[in-house]
Amino acid sequence: MRRLSFMARNFLLWALCAPLVAGCGALRVSPPFLGAALDGYPVTQEQAAQLGAEFPVPPEIVLFYLQWPASPEPGGFPGSTLDAIRSTGAIPCLTWEPMYHTGGREHTVEHRLITNGSYDPYLAAFAAEAKRWGSPFIIRLAHEMNLSRYHWGTTAEQYGPQSPELYRNMYRHVVDVFRAEGADNVLWAFAPNAESVGPSYDSTAGWNRIANYYPGSDYVDIMGVDGYNWGDTKTAARDGWESHRRSFGELFAAPRRELRKLSRQKPFMVFETASTGERDEKGRWLGEALAKAEDWGVAGVVWFQVNKEQDWRLGRDALPEPPNRLEPGPQQWLAEVLKAARKPQGHSESR
Asked: What CA–CA distance (Å, rounded) separates 292 from 296?
């Protein structure tokens, strides 16, 4: 039998595997989508286009941040930003933060004001606008809840053993409001930090575990996680903790296992990551990260394309060999995820 050429063998392998991927609801992505997280709001069409020209590839996910208002009046839906991102072909991902700034200080929205309905006018109007906007997009609500940095729903001093339950209740209430408004085009992401860090950098606190915050599979559509390679830039004397160089696999192996115990079926994404170092070093780290992510079946990796604490930004030539994608495209994939998430299920995972 004549030996097949390299291209012929690859095509044959793709032809054999394609039905298997399709049989999984077209949810597996290979290679993973590569996206960018942006600081600053709103995101204009000009910014979105510039990002496409400066990033190693046209971003397939664009993540942005939006805080809640200090009082719950309707308004503030990011329609123009969603339009700008969607016009590039990327998946829009909103990191929605229940906090606000007054007098130069940061305040989290008190949990009671969310769960007792005080913020429902804002939430219901936001949900109604999301429904009118119509296209699928991701909301990453109150991310990195296992870090004392955020202490969602309480003051920093109140962050403690009661925080996971408060978080679950807040998350579920927000999703319930959206469901009541019929905003079924929103996909909800659960996105803890890779390492749980409570008060005084105590990573051994038994209450502060990723699983304890999980709102339940009836409320979450996409599993995710954040984590950074800080290299050796942090010291205990200056920063209260010491950092070391860590690969993508070292960063995310443990939280991935914990999240996969909660759900093996839901798509998995890394919503924030980046690495310190010079241009070539960042590129190598990202290349290894994408290879590991593909091996793990990760749907997307979002790079923190921001100069904040460190200059994490990637240049256009950071990846010598950018990923070569066939199908599905990012928006097509998200539509398939939405379809699968809204399909009635015969049984439920962790609630």
From this structure: 6
pLDDT by position in tens, the chain (length 351): 333 343 343 433 333 343 333 334 447 888 999 999 999 999 999 999 999 999 999 999 999 999 999 999 999 999 999 999 999 999 999 999 999 999 999 999 999 999 999 999 999 999 999 999 999 999 999 999 999 999 999 999 999 999 999 999 999 999 999 999 999 999 999 999 999 988 765 655 789 999 999 999 999 999 999 999 999 999 888 987 788 999 999 999 999 999 999 999 999 999 999 999 988 899 999 999 999 999 999 999 999 999 999 999 999 999 978 777 777 899 999 999 999 999 876 555 655
Domain count, the chain: 1
**Is 169 a domain residue?**
yes
Looking at the chain, which runs of residues are DSSP E strands? Answer: 33-37, 61-67, 91-97, 99-102, 105-108, 137-141, 186-190, 222-226, 268-273, 300-304, 307-308, 310-311
Its pTM stands at 0.90
CA-nearest of 15, 343, 56 to 184 is 343
Residues 304-335, buried b or exposed e (16+ Cβ, 10 A)? bbbeeebebbbeeebbeebbebeebebbebbb
Between CA 161 and CA 158 the distance in angstroms is 9
Phi, psi of 189 (to 5 degrees): -110, 140
Residues with Cβ within 8 Å of residue 46, at least 6 apart in sequence: none
> Domain range for residue 176?
22-342
Q: Output the CA torsion 335→25→182→351 (10° steps).
A: -130
* Domain containing residue 338: CATH number: 3.20.20.80
Q: Which two tokens stand for residue 274?
A: 């980046």
- Whether the Cβ atoms of residue 82 and residue 88 lie closer than 8 Å to each other: no
In a domain, 12, yes or no: no
- Yes or no: say if 324 and 14 are a contact pair by the CB < 8 Å rule: no
Residue 83 lies in a domain: yes
d(C-alpha 307, C-alpha 340), whole Å? 37
Residue 78 included in any domain: yes
